[in-house]
């Protein structure tokens, strides 16, 4: 996290104590809290008086110390209970052999005021647990505890885990403040998760065997709940902490240092402290506003039509641990691309210890907030051993709308449950109507219960088929029923074709995702998804692009390029999804055979589509693809700048004979045109440099570079800085010792930029150190230098 002092000059003058006093007197917004809050801890009752909310909302305490420690992640189960991981160890993992004092607690029996009257410690002896996901009937859970993702089970029915199994690991934990977090079970049966900052993880299935996934620093990934598969979903971001899905399956994450919130595209690469992108450019952002902080945590799209007022439906909420705020982000959609102009402060706390690290929508329609209550939140600004880091206190709050029929949905006031009934024991005929419930959490939990029973009850597939086809049912119910049909093996050609004409986009979006995400992809599925690539709705088109990205085929390539041509220019998420899909048709190893190099080189498309294809193809790091793209560029007669990119792609992706052939080809094409020769050679040279390769004397490329470099260095008069820089680098690599005088002249030429003269110094030191020493001494002693 960055320093707060430059943004708040008063901090440097030691006036935070004065601000603390003013905060108690004036109902005004308070800036970001200081790195170490000068105030003392408040009791939950005292803290409750410090919250500010919009008119019509109230906040209530759910749980606090000593029932829980410092909360990290929250999750609800199918019995209406709230699971919370909590820690006293953070930020230091105990040394090997030392006791682990962290835990996982299940909260239940909620009173009319929201307070949990029962707290059961499901698991002890955990090590900075963050991610948590209860499964099945609530007798097991997936939990992150350093250094593995575990499955904890209660096999004897006493409410406490007595069995532990490693699912995946070990993960790195050089930095513990992000690590593995925000476990979210998708309708496809995969668990989606975030990987934390600085950690370089090499993950094995069930902790044994070969490494199957390597991730460095911030990324997102997914895994199967049974420990059988794990794979990366997105690349980049710095420290994603917080993830959610909306009802259309759009995936959002919170982060610090890159963007506060991001809509994630599968296969997208996001900015992350200067890390390179994949050649397609960074995946699009969804806001240009930093939310006034470098510490954003938790992400939640609110979806309960009987809960918060209509104006809040579909809003994105995120926690800001630096400004002690929960923000409300109104999403403005341009096609399938969301945009946030600026956040609104939804919940503000005038107690600097309030740290909202996770958000969840309860089955009761309330917004639940995990409060990592602490006077210090910075992981880097403040010494990790600072004595004021709190290890005792933690709270969970819920925010409710005070409108009629909202708070608690009655049953919380009678039997202590947040659900209409216990989903784990109710018969299937009572569950199916809940797939259309107003609350997304209820719908999701019901969906999981029906799927868990589906393999043992053929009636569930039958009823799901009826519901999916029922045009009078709620769109959300039909969409989830479509997933049940697909995952139970009932999504045949006729059923899929019928659902593809559903008037509700939610059904068509999830149909495409289900066709992609379940076994059985064949020609009929491919044809249907290609047809939906031209659907009237942009969300359906984006889902189709993502599905085709997973299943490369020559047939899909022209359709993807046509869809790219037709896409609205401001629907940036759709455009990038199409670019990823086109790239994946060419990239070997994506669930099947990619478009063959021979077919790529000979492809016949309109020139505009060929230009789009080329723009993506040069980003594919494959020898055969690069060579085919070069043949395509030469056959079509693309402009020099485009052709140069093709030569550069070959030099970056190929070795040996192909690079030599490309060099000879480029040299012959340039002929006596010196400017063209320099342009094409530079493209080849840059491609090699990006691949970490050097020129070799005696090769076609090395000899051509030596000849061009000698010409450039021998020039008198004004020098071109860029051309001279390349010539100096080439001279060092191919050992042009005969150019020492010219290199020395470049070093002495004050009209050249410092980076060029620095390169001249390095080249001269390498080729003629005796000559370089006296010249560099003169430069060092010259005050004008």
Give a structural overview.
The protein is α+β, with helices and mostly antiparallel strands and 785 residues long. Helices cover 35% and strands 20% of the residues. The chain contains 24 helices and 28 strands. It has a six-stranded antiparallel β-sheet with strand order 7-8-9-10-13-14, with no helix packed on it. A hairpin with a 4-residue loop joins strand 7 and strand 8. Helix 18 packs antiparallel against helix 19. The longest helix is centred in the C-terminal third of the chain and has 17 residues. The protein is globular and about 90 Å long. It starts with 15 loop residues before the first helix and ends with a helix. The relative contact order is 0.07. The N terminus is likely disordered.
Q: Name the shape in a single word.
A: globular
Amino-to-carboxy terminus distance = 37 Å
| Helix/strand/pairing category | alpha+beta
The number of helical segments is 24
Mean pLDDT: 91
What is the percentage of strand-forming residues?
15-25%
Topology, number of strands? 28
Major sheet = 6 strands, antiparallel
Relative helix content? 25-40%
Rg estimate, integer Å? 30 Å
Q: Give the strand order of the largest sheet, numbering strands 1, 2, ... along the chain.
A: 7-8-9-10-13-14
The low-confidence runs, each spanning 5 or more residues with pLDDT under 50, are: 1-30, 404-408
């Amino acid at each position: 996290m960055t320093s707060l002092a430059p943004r708040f000059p008063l901090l440097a003058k030691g006036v935070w104590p004065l601000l603390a006093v003013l905060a108690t007197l004036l109902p005004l917004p308070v800036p970001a809290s200081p790195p170490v809050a000068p105030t003392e801890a408040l009791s939950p009752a005292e803290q409750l008086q410090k919250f500010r909310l919009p008119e019509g909302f109230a906040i209530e305490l759910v749980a606090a110390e000593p029932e829980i420690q410092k909360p990290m992640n929250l999750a609800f189960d199918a019995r209406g209970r709230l699971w919370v991981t909590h820690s006293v160890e953070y930020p230091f993992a105990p040394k090997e052999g030392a006791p682990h004092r962290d835990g996982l607690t299940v909260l239940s029996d909620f009173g009319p005021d929201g307070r949990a009257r029962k707290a059961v410690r499901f698991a002890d002896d955990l090590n900075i647990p963050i991610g948590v996901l209860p499964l099945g009937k609530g007798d097991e859970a997936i939990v992150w505890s350093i250094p593995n993702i575990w499955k904890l089970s209660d096999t004897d029915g006493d409410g406490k885990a007595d069995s532990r199994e490693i699912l995946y690991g070990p993960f790195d934990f050089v930095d513990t403040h992000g690590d593995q977090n925000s476990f979210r079970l998708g309708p496809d049966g995969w668990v989606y998760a975030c990987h934390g900052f600085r950690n370089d993880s090499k993950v094995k299935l069930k902790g044994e065997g070969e490494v199957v996934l390597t991730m460095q620093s911030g990324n997102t990934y997914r895994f199967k709940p049974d420990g059988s598969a794990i794979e990366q979903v997105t690349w980049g971001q710095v420290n994603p902490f917080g993830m959610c899905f909306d009802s259309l399956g759009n995936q959002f994450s919170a982060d610090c240092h890159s963007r506060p919130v991001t809509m994630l595209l599968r296969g997208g690469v996001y900015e992350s402290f200067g890390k390179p992108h994949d050649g397609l450019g960074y995946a699009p952002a969804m806001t240009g506003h930093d939310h006034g902080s470098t510490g954003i945590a938790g992400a939640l799209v609110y979806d309960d039509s009987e809960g918060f007022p209509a104006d809040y439906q579909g809003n994105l909420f995120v926690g800001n641990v630096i400004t002690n705020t929960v923000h409300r982000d109104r999403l403005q959609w341009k096609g399938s691309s969301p945009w946030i102009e600026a956040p609104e402060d939804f919940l503000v706390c005038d107690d600097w210890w309030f740290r909202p690290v996770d958000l969840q929508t309860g089955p009761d329609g309330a917004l639940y907030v995990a409060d990592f209550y602490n006077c210090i939140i910075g992981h880097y600004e403040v010494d990790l051993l600072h004595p004021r880091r709190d290890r005792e206190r933690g709270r969970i709050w819920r925010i409710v709308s005070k409108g009629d029929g909202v708070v608690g949905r009655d049953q919380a006031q009678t039997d202590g449950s947040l659900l209409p009934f216990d989903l784990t024991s109710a018969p299937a005929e009572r569950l199916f109507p809940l797939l259309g419930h107003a609350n997304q959490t209820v719908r999701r939990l019901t969906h999981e219960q029906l799927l868990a029973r589906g393999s043992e009850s053929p009636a569930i597939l039958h009823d799901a088929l009826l519901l999916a086809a029922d045009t009078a049912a709620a769109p959300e119910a039909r969409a989830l029923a479509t997933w049940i049909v697909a995952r139970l093996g009932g999504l045949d050609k006729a059923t899929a074709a019928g659902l593809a004409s559903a008037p509700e986009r939610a059904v068509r979006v999830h149909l495409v995702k289900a066709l992609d995400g379940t076994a059985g992809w064949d020609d009929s599925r491919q044809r249907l998804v290609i047809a939906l690539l031209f659907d009237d709705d942009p969300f359906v088109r984006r889902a189709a692009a993502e599905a085709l990205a997973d299943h490369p085929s020559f047939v899909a390539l022209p359709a993807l390029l046509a869809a790219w041509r037709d896409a609205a220019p401001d629907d940036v998420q759709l455009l990038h999804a199409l670019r990823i899909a086109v790239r994946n048709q060419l990239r070997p190893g994506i669930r099947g055979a990619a478009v063959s190099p021979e077919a790529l080189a000979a492809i016949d498309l309109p020139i505009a589509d060929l230009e789009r294809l080329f723009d993506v193809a040069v980003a594919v790091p494959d020898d055969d693809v690069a060579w085919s793209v070069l043949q395509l560029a030469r056959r079509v007669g693309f402009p020099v700048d485009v052709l140069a990119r093709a030569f550069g792609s070959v030099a970056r992706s190929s070795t040996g004979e192909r690079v030599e052939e490309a060099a000879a080809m480029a040299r012959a094409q340039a002929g006596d045109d010196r400017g063209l020769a320099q342009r094409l050679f530079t493209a080849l040279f840059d491609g090699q440099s990006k691949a970490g390769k050097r020129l070799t004397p005696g090769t076609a490329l090395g000899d051509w570079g030596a000849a061009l470099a000698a010409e450039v260095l021998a020039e008198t008069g004004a020098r071109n800085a860029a051309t001279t820089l390349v010539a100096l680098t080439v001279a060092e690599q191919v050992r042009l010792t005969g150019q020492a005088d010219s290199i020395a002249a470049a070093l002495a030429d004050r009209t050249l930029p410092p980076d060029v003269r620095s390169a001249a110094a390095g080249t001269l030191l390498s080729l003629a150190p005796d000559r370089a020493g006296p010249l560099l001494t003169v430069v060092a002693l010259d005050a004008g230098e």
